[in-house]
Structure formats: structure tokens, C-alpha cells
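Cross-posted from the bioinformatics board.
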Amino acid sequence: MKISELSRTTGVPVASIKYFRRQGLLPAGKATAATLAEYGQEHVQRLRLIKALTTLGGLSIAAAREVLTAVDQAHSTESALGAVSYALPVPVAESPVGDADREAETGSAAEAEVEALIAAMDWQMPGTSPHVQGLTAALRELKRLDADYRPGELVAYAELARSAARLDLDRAATFDDDPVSLAEQAVIVFALSAPVLELLRRLAQEDQVRRRIAGGKPEPDTE
Amino acid sequence: MKISELSRTTGVPVASIKYFRRQGLLPAGKATAATLAEYGQEHVQRLRLIKALTTLGGLSIAAAREVLTAVDQAHSTESALGAVSYALPVPVAESPVGDADREAETGSAAEAEVEALIAAMDWQMPGTSPHVQGLTAALRELKRLDADYRPGELVAYAELARSAARLDLDRAATFDDDPVSLAEQAVIVFALSAPVLELLRRLAQEDQVRRRIAGGKPEPDTE
DNA sequence: AGCTACTGGATACCTTCAGTATCCAGTTAC
DNA sequence: GTAACTGGATACTGAAGGTATCCAGTAGCT
């Protein structure tokens, strides 16, 4: 199909398609002539994936490109998952300011905590993993706000995270029947589960708050 | 302290402090004269919170304002949590395009799924909750990518979410000794746990991937 | 009283991001 | 032959998140 048709079927403006192509998110169509290219079903799929990654996953164009590149170079589900995991943006920025003394002491404390956690969970981590870095930074930030986790709390959360990860991986394993878009599915599981999980947590929080407000009093009937 | 001192202690440029004040994130200092205001420790704290919310929590200025407004108007931990929960941005945007037929069928399917999930979890939800809307939209999007959850999977995730929410609420309850910044702590728990949890999940995923590549045995040992 | 440093407030400006729109010259299907 | 369409380049837009500048009014020191 021509680019205009691709635009029509996906609902993405032609200009945007060109933009994504320019940004390396979307492969160019098969050129049938100097000024004409043929697009296929894979482009439709890719466009959908891009849309999902950016809107649902909240990825920037640059992050999406990295993820998609990882997808294209992956030769197995695992390698795709690994690459994607590293390509996904970590939601923590280092805060370069603040008093240096406090920084130093809380900084090393956060590091030690993360190290202890990884040991407690029996995780084998390179230490250079961006996730380790990110977690350390996040804990540092929380410490600075005097809202850090008490000993054990973090482990409890980590146990939940482990369960979630098992579900994720199991889920990824069920996609084995379609090897073509296998890596894509892996991406989806990794990148797009996060918002779903977060939403679920919010829902659960909302329910918990409601219940605890009600307190010992009898359950308020639904209207 | 004067605004310049506030700037020095927090590391936030004066212009930015003014900006936050203008945006309603930071209360004005107590005016000691027409062109002079006194800032206190609460401003330092607030500035830290703003920074954490925007960098760690990834909130926009507008979202942060909403959250902070909720904090200021809260009279109990629960009301703060409730307000904050709704003020936090939901990471899903409706995709208004696509073929209408498929849209209709998957759309209602997603709705039914969410409804069933809420029933299965015994959650009492208004249905108008933005989280319900968001989850529905997210599932719709995943369906469109042919990566939707199989029956039961979602429930498993929801159970994890429930556990996490319990931990969250328990955590929030331990802050009762400092009623001044109580609402702030609640915000932190709700808004800033998300990145930590997500990071933990990534860590766990990374570990899982490593184990499954190495062992070929998808069954990790229990400790 | 005079001088300088600092202030709140208003406004203008800058950079990045994610698209959109325009222009162009080369096909191509009719 | 011509109207429709193309890839490619470039320009533009609008929002977001700050920064920087300008201003006249003090405060505090001398």
C-alpha cells in the first residue's frame, strides 16, 4: 500500500509517518521506484506499537527508538527482554544539588541498602545495571525527604516485584507460537505492563483507603 | 530567611523559586514589608517535595500543583491519600483513531473485563474513578496489539497490586507521629512509591531473564 | 540622608519535544 | 499530458519548563 493508504488505515497523519521514519522508528517502505514505496502489514503493526509505546508506555521518541532497535536486533525472547529492559527509561534523575555532607552520608546509606536488598533477594546483578543505579538514586531522594523505607519494608516490596516479574516472564513465554512478532510481544509485556500494574495498584489503594476510612464501622452498602 | 538564602540552601535558582510560586506550587513567604518576604523551613521542605514529585514522580507542574493543593486541604491521612490518588496523572491517553467496528467490539470487551476484575477482587469502585477509566483504556490498547491478558492473569496481577497497596497504607500509617507533614508523607508514599516499585520490578525481571537463560529451568528455587 | 543589595511582580526569552505543514522536483497511473 | 502522489528537506507550531531581564520599592547600613 502507499503511504497515504497506510495513513488512512492507521489514522496516523502522513506527516507523522514521515516523522517516525525520519526518526528511525519506522522502517522505510520497499521502494518500488525512485519516488514511490510500498508499505505492508508490518508497517501497520509497527505504527500501532509506536503509538502504544509513546502514549501508553509514556516513552519519548528517543526511548521508543532504542526499544524498537533492540526488538529488531533480538534473536530470542530473552535477548529481546534484556535489551528492552535496559532501553526503557528509568524514571529517576540525579539531583546534583544540595549540601554535600548530607549527600555523602545518605548516598552511601542508600547504596548499602540496595546492596543488602539484592543480597537478601538472591539476585545476581552486575551492579552496573541502570536499575540498580536508579533504585539507589530513588532511595537517596526518599531519604532526603525523610520518607525512606524501614528495614524489611523494601524486601516485602521486592518480593511482590519478584512475583510480578514471574508473571511477566510466564506471560512472555506464552507468545512462543508467533515467532515473527515475538520480540514485539516481549516489548509489550515489559513496557506496557507497567502502566497496567500501576493502575491496578491505584485501584487497590483506592479500595484500601475506602475500607480503612470505614474503619471498624459496618461496611457502607453500595448505592 | 530571604529568598536568596532559600535558593542557596535548596540549590534551586531564585528564578525557579519565583516560577514555582507563580505556578502556585510554593506558598509565598511571609511578607515582612512591601518588597521583602521571610521564608522558613516549610519552604525548604516544600521545595524538596516539589523536586521529588517532578523528577522522581515524573509529575508535570500542573499535576504537582493539584497534588500539593490536595495536600494543603487534607485534614486526615485518608483524605489526603484519596485526593492525591485522583490528582495523580493516569498514564493512558485515549486513541481516538482506528476502525470503528473493531473499536466497538474490543472496547466493550475491555470494559467487561475491568468490571469482572473489580467484582472478582471485591473492590467497591465508583466506576467513575479515573483509574477504572484508565485501566479500561489500557486494556483496550493492549487488545488492539493482540497482547491482552488471558483470563485469570489480570486477577493475579491485581492480587499483587492489593498486597502492594496494603504495604503502602501500612507505611502511611506509621507516619502518624508527625501530624504536620503527615499529608506530605502520604503524598510521598503514593506518588513516589511507583518508581521504586517499578524499579524493583525491572530488577526482578532482569534476574528472572538471567535465570531462565542460564538454567533453561524456569523454576527458581524458593528461599 | 545616601547608597547599595535585595525584593516581588511582570514580562520576555530560551530550549526541548513532538509533531505539522510547506515546498520541491521526480515519477506514475490514467 | 496532466493530475495525483511520492521521498526528502526544511520550516513552522505549540506546549512545557524554566531563565533572564527590567522595574520601582524598600531595608539596612553608614
